[in-house]
Amino acid sequence: MQNNIERIHFDSMNTCNMCMMELENVYETLVLSPEEIDLLDMPKRTFTVHFPVHMDSGETKMFIGHRVQYNDARGPTKGGIRYHPELDLDGLKNLAFLMAIKCALVNIPFGGSKGGIIVDTKKISRGELERITRAYVREVSDIMGPFKDIPAPDAYTDERVMVWILDEFERIRGRHVPAIVTGKPIELGGSQVRRISTALGGVYVLEEALQTIEQEMRSPCVAIQGFGNVGRNAAKILHEKGYRICAISDSSGGIRNVNGIDILKLMEHKEQTGSVLGFPDTTEISNEELLVSDCDILIPAALSKQIGKDNAADIKAKIILELANAPTTLEASRLLAEMGIMVIPDILANAGGVVVSYFEWIQNLNQDYWKEEKVLERLKYTMTTAFANTHNICADEKCSMRKAALQFAVRSILHAERLRGNL
Ligand SMILES: NC(=O)C1=CN([C@@H]2O[C@H](COP(=O)(O)OP(=O)(O)OC[C@H]3O[C@@H](n4cnc5c(N)ncnc54)[C@H](OP(=O)(O)O)[C@@H]3O)[C@@H](O)[C@H]2O)C=CC1
Ligand SMILES: O=C(O)CCC(=O)C(=O)O
């Protein structure tokens, strides 16, 4: 086997260095062959598109979009679409890899993908957002399909964007194809619960995790970074369950009140002002301060690489529930494990989103729509089973949850590759 540095030089075209480094943590335990490592280290396909869009000003601007399909041994690739001014292909490869791992861990028949457009949604109009989305779909429609690659919402995309993706794709195909995208509004084939499923799935695994620790936490104090779809719904669900939400932030900064923040009122405040700042009876803190603030449970629910080697040692939470994707660098993950902090990894913690996306896809294909109770019951079963599978490996091997989850998922992906005769 080549060492890491040799490999980076050897296949520099489309490697995913972050994926390689993450996978190295399980190579030894799983005793993988060089062929297996080669297969896992690189995405299957990477697309970059460059397309013009007419802006409101009358000028035409060029945009760049990507879609990475990492592995499809277990089924069509599945993963969100992210709009962000700092979107980069390497980050997307890692996110697509995490999708493949996540789907294998919760045992749904999908591979993993991720995509997006380099754009700041706060600096464009609604009309421009729609034209950019539709233009991107025209560029990538050939590689999408209900049995090929199925997008969904991610940071700075929402139901409205999913509807434009659906509509543009159906215009191109000339027929209805509801299963082309998930995260749609219920009126257009969306599933009950999908709006809150990422947060709710996270709460299910958090409560399983709390049962495994000896020390009882009474009215735990929770700090949440991010107040978008995932952060806001996690805050609301936990608030309703009696947790104290002591600190919360968005891109403009954070607020803190150790006695707990009224989340419903904060949601109204954010709706009216566009920010969590200025909410009554709270002290302003920075996003950096939020991450290292006194709390029992820390929930990163915004962007990647928020917890790194520079701030990990200062974290005071006893549990970190990673609702964002890749919020912790690998270096920081190792440090947190040494500090005895329980980290419920993204690939488990935020899988509730794709699990209900899978339910939405099934409902679309069968044209048979489920009641809320059925979705809730199946989501809970899927998440608690994935938690138990991960926890059992942790107990047997005395390893972190991240390593355990990764092992479980890699085994499952390689098994599918072997069955297909690819290994
Ligand atoms: N949506 C889903 O179903 C899933 C999402 N995820 C992951 O969850 C995370 C959040 O996604 P989602 O909630 O959908 O995205 P949204 O776009 O709905 O929300 C993003 C939130 O993050 C905040 N934010 C952005 N930059 C920063 C920053 N530097 N510091 C603090 N907060 C910041 C935003 O602030 P502001 O409101 O001011 O813009 C916003 O509140 C992402 O990592 C995503 O990949 C994972 C699985 C599924
Ligand atoms: O719902 C989905 O299909 C994917 C959601 C997503 O992008 C994620 O889990 O990171």
Automatic annotation (TrEMBL):
InterPro entries listed in its UniProt record: Aminoacid_DH-like_N_sf, Glu/Leu/Phe/Val/Trp_DH, Glu/Leu/Phe/Val/Trp_DH_C, Glu/Leu/Phe/Val/Trp_DH_dimer, Glu_DH, NAD(P)-bd_dom_sf, NAD_bind_Glu_DH
PANTHER family: GLUTAMATE DEHYDROGENASE, GLUTAMATE DEHYDROGENASE 1, MITOCHONDRIAL
Keyword tags: NAD, Nucleotide-binding, Oxidoreductase
Binding site for substrate: 78, 102, 357
Annotated site residues (Important for catalysis) in this chain: 154
Origin organism lineage: Archaea, Methanobacteriati, Methanobacteriota, Stenosarchaea group, Methanomicrobia
Quaternary structure, from the entry: Homohexamer.
Protein name: Glutamate dehydrogenase
Family: Belongs to the Glu/Leu/Phe/Val dehydrogenases family.
Protein's GO biological process: L-glutamate catabolic process
Binding site for NAD(+): 198, 229
Keyword Oxidoreductase (UniProt): yes
Domain Glutamate/phenylalanine/leucine/valine/L-tryptophan dehydrogenase C-terminal intervals: 191-421
Molecular function GO labels: glutamate dehydrogenase (NAD+) activity; nucleotide binding
Catalytic machinery residues: 114 (proton donor)
Pfam families assigned: ELFV_dehydrog, ELFV_dehydrog_N
Superkingdom assignment: Archaea
